[in-house]
């Protein structure tokens, strides 16, 4: 067998940076679209929600700081390191956030993160958005393995993972420091061919 070394990248560099971040339709008249400066207030509101603070370890003090974060999301797309979308109705401000952190095009993996504001919870929005973005990441971007981690105490997030088809692979003991101490984390994953 001929050994090819170094291994070629799973996804060639440039596949994100050379294209615009797409707008993707969701059921219920919602869409996934890039964050805009006008969404800054939504980030501040989210960071005041106790559940989002607790589970997303997320804090933004001011609208100015939120605008800087939104600018950084666009930089991270161009650097092919992150891909973060707003969940919104067309023409309206963001009601949630979902996207990929720790994108590794060379190795073919990324980790999903998400939250929605309290008024948008309970209707299956995040499950639909997770399914849509997972299809995008596997079929359009070409990643091989998608990770989803959540605290074992976050039952809602565990249910989102299960409903979106992510297999529970195990528990990462005392893995992430939260405001109330170290939490064990569930590791779920979705692989090429799972869907
Ligand atoms: C986790 C979160 C994104 C889920 O969004 P959501 O809109 O509430 O989820 P859905 O309505 O799609 O519900 C998903 C499932 O979780 C279940 N669920 C919701 N809250 C739950 C809870 N506290 N305990 C157990 N299951 C729960 C729902 O019943 C549903 O399952 P079902 O369809 O079988 O009934 C949302 O609650 C949130 O933003 N929470 C705060 C931040 C957060 O936890 N982020 C994730 C960090 S890993």
Automatic annotation (TrEMBL):
Recorded GO MF terms: protein N-terminal-serine acetyltransferase activity; protein-N-terminal-alanine acetyltransferase activity
Keyword Transferase applies: yes
This protein's GO CC annotations: cytoplasm
Source organism superkingdom: Bacteria
Gene3D superfamilies named among the record's database cross-references: 3.40.630.30
Residues covered by the N-acetyltransferase domain: 30-188
Keyword Transferase attributed: yes
Keywords: Transferase
Pfam families listed in its UniProt record: Acetyltransf_3 (PF13302)
The protein's name in its UniProt record: RimJ/RimL family protein N-acetyltransferase
Upper classification of the organism: Bacteria, Bacillati, Actinomycetota, Actinomycetes, Kitasatosporales
């Amino acid at each position: 067998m001929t050994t090819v070394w170094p291994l070629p990248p799973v996804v060639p560099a440039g596949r994100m940076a050379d294209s615009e971040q797409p707008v993707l339709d969701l059921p219920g008249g919602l869409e996934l679209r890039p964050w805009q400066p006008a969404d800054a207030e939504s980030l501040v509101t989210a960071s005041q929600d106790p559940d989002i603070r607790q589970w997303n370890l997320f804090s933004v003090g001011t609208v100015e700081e939120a605008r800087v974060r939104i600018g950084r999301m666009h930089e991270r797309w161009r650097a092919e390191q992150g891909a973060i979308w707003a969940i919104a109705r067309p023409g309206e401000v963001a009601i949630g956030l979902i996207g990929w952190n720790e994108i590794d095009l060379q190795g073919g993996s990324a980790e999903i993160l998400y939250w929605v504001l309290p008024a948008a919870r309970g209707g299956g929005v995040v499950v639909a958005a997770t399914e849509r973005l997972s299809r995008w990441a596997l079929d359009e971007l070409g990643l091989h393995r998608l990770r989803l981690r959540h605290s074992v105490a976050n039952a809602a997030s565990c249910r989102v993972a299960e409903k979106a088809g992510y297999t529970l692979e195990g528990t990462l003991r005392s893995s992430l420091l939260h405001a109330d101490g170290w939490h064990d984390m569930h590791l779920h994953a979705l692989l090429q061919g799972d869907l």
